[in-house]
Specification:
- The complex is a heterodimer of chains A (278) and B (309).
- Chain A has 278 residues and is an alpha/beta fold.
- Chain A has 12 helices and 10 strands.
- Chain A has 2 domains: 227 residues, Rossmann fold, CATH 3.40.50.300; 33 residues, no CATH class.
- In chain A, a hairpin with a 2-residue loop joins strand 4 and strand 5.
- Chain B has 12 helices and 2 strands.
- In chain B, helix 1 crosses helix 9, helix 2 crosses helix 8 and helix 5 packs antiparallel against helix 8.
- The longest helix of chain B is centred in the first third of the chain and has 34 residues.
- Chain B is globular, with a radius of gyration of 20 Å.
- Chains A and B meet through helix 3, strand 6, helix 4 and helix 7 of A and helix 6 and helix 7 of B.
């Protein structure tokens, strides 16, 4: 088999490939220092790490929203569905099937739940009846939104707002959703409910997910693959079960100590040693 | 009965001139709602629209076009000018300043004001140009009921009619159309709107275009009333108390605020004037606005700030 053909088949299998990107804010602040990752078509990939590790920046680099915050990809390339992202505007990307659900449930507070969901269909040109059909589909996934369809989104609960923004993203008929911190500030039961819906969308609609999460435990239960970011670098990646079983991941991200409980100082030592080795 | 007749006349006159303030205030509300920018240039945009309209109209009439053809063409020309202005402002002022704070954007619109004023007078001239689009004579109503009847200016009636149609049209545009919904979404959270694929620059162009067209409508009425002249830009200052009373984010608020200011200042002038001295008309609106600020800072119809804690 020729190399060109091999390249083509791997490309078709990947919905997203990020190759060694650097991101600089305000021309001076280097936030990502060479991040690479891949999302297979139809997969759920978790992007893990602490606050400020660069998860959100990575997602925004993909969805091309960095520009609005004075950020810039200075090195590397991002291919979504085989197309270089840099040349596309955020709305081009949404039209091509790559949509971001931003951190912090950014529902439009003064619009009703239904109006919120409908704004997700802005880029579509396939007519009112197709959009109405998809609205029904969204309500089928989130029955709770149907009950609240007429309420002002700003007055709904956190969980309902999170469902609302995921439903809104679905209206664009995405191939991939960049889901940023869906668990933030929500009750564990609601988080579980939302992750179940994500899995359902993944299986039934074939939507791929790149999922940025601090809730490592939850994310690794639903993802097939995970990347761990630290200070703007990928420090570890692998199959989700393998990551969940990894001693370092357990130590730092899952809060499960090994055989004997370590003091905080031990953890710091351990972490520093690991970093030197990496 | 004479006293009541007089009161009615003052009230109606005040309400009608209030509608004219509303027309200017509307432009502010549109832009503030969609981009959080307090557009100081709205008054200058009324001037620009008026100048473009009246100069094109005069030129066409002088070249022998029938009046109604000339009016339609001149309005079309002025609309194109407003569209070009909207595009230039989005492209070179508001677009590059994305994500700056409200004060920066406000300052930039002050700059825009001076540019518009300068360029408009350079191109179209700086005289007072009379505009005769609407009848300006008066009706006398209820002559049977009140001695002498109630004097109502026809221009004011036209103004009220046009404002009504405009508000109805805008309400439908905002509530029922896809672009209107996108506009409200951008107003709430422009980055989130960006993330769902709403092209911000296009939306801002549309907002400034709509505000420009509202300015054009205001210019037809105000131009007929005062003549198209430089002092029209100061209408922006009269719109300020209207906005504070009605609420910066509410279209019905702009109308009701205008009515309150218009009626309030006329009634105050006529009934309080003799006892505390004249000239109340000039400051009454600002005192009213101050009172509203103390009691209800978001204005009578302004959006409550929704914040989850």
């Amino acid at each position: 088999m020729s190399t060109a053909k091999v390249a083509m088949t791997t490309e078709a299998a990947l919905v997203l490939s990020v190759n060694n990107i650097e991101v600089v804010y305000d021309h001076v602040i280097l936030v990502l220092k060479g991040v690479s990752l891949e999302v297979p078509r139809g997969g759920i990939v978790a992007l893990l790490g602490a606050n400020g590790a660069g998860k959100t920046t990575t997602l925004k680099a993909v969805s091309n929203l960095l520009h609005a915050e004075r950020g810039e990809v200075t090195k590397g390339s991002i291919l979504f569905d085989g197309v270089e992202v840099k040349s596309l505007s955020p709305n081009d990307l949404v039209r091509r099937g790559c949509i971001q659900v931003m951190e912090g449930r950014r529902a439009f507070a003064h619009l009703t739940v239904e109006e919120n969901i409908l704004t997700g269909a802005f880029t579509r040109r396939d007519g009112k009846s197709a959009i109405a059909q998809d609205l029904e589909r969204v309500y089928a996934y989130f029955p709770r939104l149907r009950e609240r369809r007429g309420s002002t989104a700003g007055y709904t609960s956190g969980g309902e707002q999170q469902m609302c923004v995921i439903g809104r993203a679905l209206m664009s008929r995405p191939k991939m959703i960049l889901l940023d911190e869906p668990s933030m500030g929500l009750a564990p039961q609601i988080v579980e409910e939302i992750f179940e819906i994500v899995r359902g969308l993944n299986i039934k609609e074939g939507v791929s997910f790149l999922l940025a999460e601090q809730n490592t435990n939850m994310a690794l239960r639903y993802a097939s693959h995970g990347y761990i970011l630290e200070n703007g670098r990928v420090v570890m990646d692998g199959e989700a079960p393998a990551l969940a079983a990894n001693a370092d991941v357990k130590e730092f991200y899952l809060g499960v100590a090994g055989d004997k409980r370590k003091s905080y100082r031990d953890v710091k030592h351990y972490k520093r040693r690991k970093r030197w080795l990496a | 009965m004479i006293a009541f007749g007089q009161f009615l006349e003052v009230l109606i006159g005040g309400l009608m001139s209030g509608v004219l303030y509303s027309l200017v205030a509307l432009g502010f509300v549109l832009i503030f709602k969609a981009s959080g920018v307090f557009n100081y240039a709205q008054g200058a945009m009324v001037l620009l629209a008026g100048l473009a309209l009246v100069r094109a109209l005069d030129l066409l009439v002088a070249n022998g076009f029938p009046l109604w053809v000339a009016v339609v063409l001149a309005i079309g020309f002025a609309a194109v000018i407003m569209a070009a202005t909207a595009w230039l402002i989005e492209r070179f002022v508001i677009g590059p300043l994305v994500n700056q704070d409200a004060l920066t954007l406000f300052m930039s619109t002050i700059g825009v004001t001076f540019v518009i004023e300068g360029v408009a007078e350079m191109i179209f001239g700086s005289d007072v140009y009379p505009l005769r689009l609407f009848p300006t004579d008066a009706w006398f109503l209820f002559e049977g009921l009140f001695p002498g009847g109630i004097l109502v200016n026809k221009l004011d009636v036209w103004g009220a009619l046009i404002a009504g149609i405009l508000v109805g049209g805008l309400a439908i545009f905002f509530q029922r159309t896809k672009t209107g919904r996108a506009l409200r979404a951008v107003a709430d959270d422009h980055l989130a709107a960006h993330s769902v694929g709403i092209p911000i620059s296009w939306i801002w162009f549309v907002v400034w275009l709509v505000a420009g067209l509202v300015a054009l409508v205001a210019a037809t009425v105000w131009g007929t009333k005062l003549g198209v002249q430089f002092s029209i830009t100061f209408l922006a200052l009269k719109a300020l108390p209207v906005l504070i009373i009605g609420g910066l984010t509410s279209i019905p608020g702009a109308i009701v605020g205008g009515l309150i200011v218009g009626a309030g200042e006329k009634i105050a002038e006529v009934y309080l004037g003799p006892s505390i001295g004249g000239g109340i008309e000039y400051w009454f609106a600002y005192v009213l606005a101050l009172a509203v600020l103390l009691v209800r800072p978001q204005g009578l119809f302004g959006e409550r700030i929704i914040e989850r804690i």
